[in-house]
Amino acid sequence: MADDLLLTPNPRFEGRPGPLLVVVMDGVGCRARDDGNAVELARKPTLDRLRREHPWIELCAHGTAVGLPSDDDMGNSEVGHNAMGAGRVFDQGSKLVGAAIASGRLWSGEVWRTIVERLRSSGQPLHLIGLLSDGNVHSHIDHLEAIIRRAAKEGVKQLYVHALLDGRDVPETSALAYVERLEAILADYDGKDSRRYRIASGGGRMKVTMDRYGANWGVVELGWKTHVRGEGRRFASATEAIETLRAETPGVIDQDLPAFVIAETGQPVAPIRDGAAVVFFNFRGDRAIEMSRAFEDDEFPHFDRAPRPDVLYAGMMEYDGDAHVPRRYLVEPPAIERTMGEMLAHAGVTQFACSETQKFGHVTYFWNGNRSGCFDRKTETYVEVPSDRLPFEERPWMKAAEIADATATALATGKHRFARINFANGDMVGHTGVLDSTVLAVEAVDLSLGRLLRTVERLGGIVLVTADHGNADDMFERDKHGAPKTNKLTGRPQARTSHTLNPVPFAIFDPLFAGEYHVDPSLARRGLSNIAATCFALLGYQTPDGYDPPLIRFEP
Q1: CATH class held by domain 3-91+336-554
Q2: Number of H-type helices and E-type strands within the chain
Q3: Which of 140-154, 208-222, 401-415, 441-455 has the lowest mean pLDDT?
Q4: Which of 38, 127, 178, 202 could disulfide-link 163, Cβ–Cβ 3.0 to 4.6 Å?
Q5: Residue 326 in 3-state DSSP?
Q6: Nearest Cα to 287, choosing from 129, 115, 59, 441?
Q7: Any idea where the domains of the chain sit in the sequence?
């Protein structure tokens, strides 16, 4: 056993007889009550009691506190769970990509050089697939533009973008602004020096390509047909496609727009053929893994890919470090080691992790530092509750009750010393922009949380309640003065579907508390990365070297 994985007992506190449970209420941030705050509009007696009767503070869950480039950057589930599980802040995807572009490391890297040489040899295009926005959660348009300009500089004659529309991490009907910006960049090169630089296909991110955790492979299959085969409804431009599809379904938001293909003279402009190179320019992994596997896996049972083109495929980053998906990538991911899960596994501490499909990878893969699978199958139990395939606003309770059932059952066995779970409701329903449904989503989480508090109290344990980022706490787009913007079609406040910059709650439910510790007032900044050391402390261990300090201080 490596010395740096050893845990040292805490002489001041041995822990409670029962389990320590961390509950992540995905997307439930802290903000003053108003008509757009679904969290405060919800009936939530459990959370209200925690805030009133138990230790309750707010944590920073965005920007530099979770490894993002600036404090203007919204947090997200990936970086939030990385920070919670790692106990330290690591530079994350967007920041790493930006640095690789600025330094030139990306262009001098072996994968980019191989892409350029292949295209020079084959004469085939470079295809760029990814989320078109500046939300900085899965991708950033700045990175896409940098690739386009560098490809032109390297003499790439054909380049096509397969644009997935956002409306989730950015305003819900903002796609045309990003398309116009992209088309302006492409126009700088298209038709000059025998170049063809165009948008080739696209569609809303929740309908095309960007499925995750195997929730709905049909989304990926549609992306394959659209991007690779050029099959689907045809339009003269992406702008025409968006405007037409919006007119046909009034009120539809960008993430739900159907797939489209750009055509000339009745034919798709750029199906993906043998000899081409394909780059998935998202830096975040969860919604890029499945399409990466479609391009790379020889054994592939999920849908018929034929014809499967012989292409050089690369991701912006490595999306799964254990399965090595994809095989080629442009930027090295953060090297996250000595995570909380790994250290507890080495100490023989039994662990339980549970969520529904939509967030299962967050309490496992991302929590464990972008590592899939268990560290020790003898001491770790992971339970995935299959998510619904219906729109989340139609079933805002999602699988909160089933997650609570599975967790209560597991903890009652007495086998698990530490547990972590994620309730996805506040995030997934909040992303739909439907306020009433999001209120119900928060209420469903509160109800299930109450059940778990009672379970852990009977077992003599502790529950830590927190969130990974804000979302449901602000459901309205706002002007520079903070007032809700008005939707010109409905006259109602413009729905917000993206995350927020608001802090998140952190509450300690410890029924056996006898004054052994208190919240540490000396910490200059409290963030998600402080949670791991807090867990170690409440389990009876000292803070490992290099970890951010705990949120609590023990009495002398």
Answers
A1: alpha beta
A2: 17, 18
A3: 208-222
A4: 202
A5: coil
A6: 129
A7: 3-91+336-554, 94-331
